[in-house]
Amino acid sequence: MKALVLHEINRISIDDIDIKEEMGPEDVKIAMKAVGICGSDIHYYKNGKIGGFVVKEPMILGHEASGTVIEAGANVKGLKPGDRVCMEPGIPDPGSRATMLGIYNLDPGVRFWATPPVHGCLRETVVHPAMFTFKLPDNLGFDEGALIEPMAIGLHACTKAGIKPGDTALVLGCGTIGLVTAICALSAGCSRVIITDIKAEKLELAKKYGIMTVHAESESVLETVKEVTDGWGVDVIFEATGNEKVIADIFTPLCPGGPVILIGMPVDPAPIDVVAAQIKEACIKPIFRYAHMYPRAVALAGSGKVDLKPLVTDRFSFSDSIKAFENAANPRPDMVKTVIEM
After folding, report:
1. Tell me: the pLDDT tens digits for 40-60?
2. E strand or H helix at 325, and its extent?
3. With b meaning 16 or more CB within 10 Å and e meaning fewer, what string describes 191-226?
4. How far apart are CA 272 and CA 87, in angstroms?
5. Is-contact 146 66, C-beta < 8 A?
6. Rounded to 5 degrees, what are φ and ψ at 171?
7. What is the Cα 66 distance to its own chain's centre?
């Protein structure tokens, strides 16, 4: 089949490859319809690594996905050919200790699409476990189905934060992950959510969701937080930039005893100001992907309370995948999510 393959830093191509994927009785075969380009895809494309995840051999990119079931295994219930679906991209070892404890996203043996050395889903078809395949509501299109994956991250972050009705939150970074996290924080009960970025165009999109915005280069994040919270600080901070300089000063806007949720993944190790965390007894909570969030994300998006369509700012056909990655790697100021339509 044809697939988009990363060969080395800044070199991708659409290749004809032979992937051996056997259908088991609990699996479904899916024709791909939409794949979002994630920040991690761009990191691998431009840098060849994220932290300890290093691309050492050719790898198919893509993990934010939706498609149509074209074959179902003998034991599959609830899914049939023709169903429109989105797919949770990580497959853990069902017998691992992490899986048994319910934290399957932390299973060291998890096979996650487009995480070295596991191939991703930017190809014509995939075989995937039915238990990690979710039917899309009729009111969600394939592009929105691909966005369920980043939305699951936002929901996982908000769940880890333990948001209470009336809380105030600060989201650092107005990319796709920052935006969906801010949207999920409002849905979880936050009275006010502030989001920051250096791109005014992205902040304009955030305003349409009822999110307060701060242009980080021309406005003071700290002064805005003081004004909104009467000097107390926000109840929770979500870090969604992965920028080392942002992380270095992350505790200043936080209220005493509040949590900091680390979502963004720096390419290289980032500094943490331990003393700044100690004097507020900040609770530092890193998150890694998500667990048990796909059904919630599908339900929230399908409820009509959250409109994911505006987040897709760029669309390309699969035949233009190389151009799509070049475009996403050098984004316009207003660009949020690029989706490749199959």
Report:
1. 999 999 999 988 899 999 999
2. helix 321-329
3. ebbbbbbebeebbebbeebebbbbebeeeebeebbe
4. 34
5. yes
6. -110, 120
7. 14
The pLDDT of residue 268 is above 90 = no
DSSP 127-138: EEEGGGEEEPPT
Handedness of CA 159, 180, 272, 50 (dihedral sign): positive
Q: Please, what is the end-to-end C-alpha distance for the chain in angstroms?
A: 13
- Do residues 169 and 240 touch, judged by C-beta distance below 8 A? no
Q: pTM for this one?
A: 0.96
What pLDDT score does 141 carry?
Answer: 97
Q: What is the pLDDT of residue 207?
A: 97
Mean pLDDT of 192-196: 98
pLDDT digits (tens, 9 = 90+) for 10-23: 999 999 999 888 99
φ/ψ of 5, rounded to 5, equals -115, 130
For 289, the token pair is: 């992907």
